[in-house]
Amino acid sequence: MPKKLALAGFQISDRIVSSASGPYSNDRPSPLPAHTGEKIMNRTLFSAAMSVAVLLSTSAVAALPEAKPLSAQTRANLEAAMHGEAYANLKYLRFADQAEAAGKPALAKLFRASANIEANEHFDREAQALQLGGANSANLEDAMAGEHYENITMYVNFAKQAEADGDVKVAAMFRQIAVDEGTHFDAYKAALAKLADE
Questions:
Q1: Which of 51, 65, 139, 140 could pair with 192 in a Cys bridge, judged by C-beta atoms 3.0 to 4.6 Å apart?
Q2: How does pLDDT run across 13-51, given as a tens digit for each residue?
Q3: Cβ(15)–Cβ(23) under 8 Å?
Q4: Distance between CA 132 and CA 70 in Å, rounded?
Q5: 5 by DSSP, 3-state: which?
Q6: What separation, in Å, do the N-terminal and C-terminal C-alpha atoms of the chain show?
Q7: pLDDT at 135 over 60
Q8: Whole-structure pTM over 0.90, yes or no?
Q9: How far apart are CA 30 and CA 41, in angstroms?
Q10: Whole-angstrom Cα distance, residue 137 to residue 197?
């Protein structure tokens, strides 16, 4: 049975130039020397691939519409998706460590592979669509705002709620993490000041 390759919607059969069975009929030997058919096929495939690549690249450039700003809902959906992907990445890494500790290396490998896709493919593509990040100073200011909120508002409120519900260990953990976030804020603030001096 001849092998077929699909290239941009075209099927190319190796029977056309095969030197083993011959392009003729009834298994007559090919007049071509051994491996010549493969070389011809490789050249043909390379030429076809290059032609298709050129056509696709020039038509893609010509067909690009002007970029318009994302809608508020699309931006919100991208941010929600990125939060989910980041959480899944870290959760699956933790699951991988637990599977490894339980003597299940294949399961650990599965979790790590999935975690990699969540972060390095899904999150990355969504971040590009959102155009996340920018100049170093803007990135530092954004990071400072997040850390400041977590330091003085989010974790403080979480600690109060946990304490009111009797979850004192979690309340203490939230308070300790709030201190860490303040340290991060200070580090970003110092980095921003240093950046301004350069």
A1: 140
A2: 333 333 333 433 444 444 444 444 445 444 544 444 444
A3: yes
A4: 12
A5: strand
A6: 68
A7: yes
A8: no
A9: 14
A10: 12
